[in-house]
Every structure is written in C-alpha cells, then in structure tokens.
Amino acid sequence: MRCRCLALRVDQMMIVAGDNTLGKYEGMEQYSKPYSITPHPLYNKSTNNADIMLIKLRAPIKPNRYVSLAPLPKQNTGVLPGQLCQVSGWGSTSQGRGVSPLALQSVTVPSISTAKCNSSKSINGSITSNMICAGYSTGGKDACKWDSGELLVCDGRLYGLASWGNSCGDTRFPGVYTAVARFRRWIDRTIYRSIIRCYKYRKPLALKSTSSDV
C-alpha cells in the first residue's frame, strides 16, 4: 500500500504552496496554517473508497508564476482510457529502496479503464466507481510510496488524487487515484455551506431615514 497515514492535529500541520525542493527555502514558497479539515463522511480506510479530504486555510494562497490553480471537473465526468495525465510529487523513485527525492518529480501516465484495472489479471475487483486507474502496461512510470494525495491532472483539470496501489510501476498493477469528479457536488456544498448558512440566518438591516419629509 502507498498510503502513509499521519495522525496529525490541525495545529500540527502547515500547508506549503510553491515549494520545489524539500528542506530548502527558495523564496517562492507560501505558507498557511489549516483552519479546519473535512474528511469525506463515507471514507473507508479498509477499501480506500471516498479517499478525499478538504482543508480550509486560515490565510489565502495567492496565485503567481510559481503557484497556479487546477480547475475541478464537473460532477461525474471522466477521462477516456489512454488519455495522458500528469502526476507530480516527492514520492519514492524506486519500489524497493524507498528513497524520496528532494526535488519535485513529475511523470505522465495514461488513464486505464475501470474494467481493465478491475480484471483478474490486475487489481481484481477492488476498484470502486469513486476511483480511477492510470499507468503503463509496460510499467516503470507511476506514483509511488509517499505520493498519496498528489494531483493527477488531465487536460488541465484535477481528475485524480493519488490514493493507493499494490506496488510501484508494476506491469499488472497501475496507480489508483480518487476520482475527483465523483465528489464535485460534495466539494461545492462543503465549501459554500458556511456562506449559505450566513445568508440564511442573517437578519435584514432596518433602514432609517433622516429626511424630515418622510
């Protein structure tokens, strides 16, 4: 399994954007402490179904030449088998050694149909409708250990989050990603819930005229 589960409280976490080399300050990093975290209520740690969580920041991250936004896909949209996607991260570059690079790595991998990924010759039925697979039939290129949560971007949109896998770069077992498009409505509802609640319960302001003619 690729998942590295860290039992961290919100006050122990720091979100960093624009980072390229771990352990080295390069001047383009932006930092923000989390305000709250919201795991999906249906997350199952045994099957990794609904493996997605939202983090609300205390301070906004500003887009610039080093930090950009990845648009979300519409609800229930998907990628075609064979479509090339890019995944980036600081995960291990070797299955056996488990050595993680300091510099950000990136690789392009093709998406794989759920039917093929779920076949008896591959992951054998463990892929749910909330997951997508990506990788080469020849192996060699893949997300790996410590890459959990990294982004799978297809055609400029965030379609996947690195979730789990049986190995790294194996010809039989491609990488498994959370299908972000399956959770778009939940993402929107969670983000805008506080705004909707604010408008719903806000009392209207009484306007008082200072004109003597009224």
Structural features, described:
The protein is α+β, with helices and mostly antiparallel strands. Helices cover 10% and strands 24% of the residues. The chain contains two helices and ten strands. It has a six-stranded antiparallel beta barrel with strand order 5-6-7-10-9-8. Strands 1-2 form a two-stranded antiparallel ribbon. A two-stranded antiparallel sheet has the order 3-4. β8 and β9 form a beta hairpin. The radius of gyration is 21 Å and the shape is globular. The N and C termini lie far apart (74 Å). 24% of the residues are buried. The N terminus and C terminus are likely disordered.
User: Could you state the order of secondary-structure elements as H and E?
Assistant: EEEEEEHEEEEH
Number of helices: 2
Q: Determine the fraction of residues in helical runs and give it as a percent range.
A: 10-25%
Instruction: Describe the largest sheet.
Output: 6 strands, antiparallel, barrel
Mean pLDDT: 85
Instruction: Name the strands of the widest sheet in spatial order.
Output: 5-6-7-10-9-8
- Radius of gyration equals 21 Å
Content of β-strand: 15-25%
* Terminal-residue CA separation: 74 Å
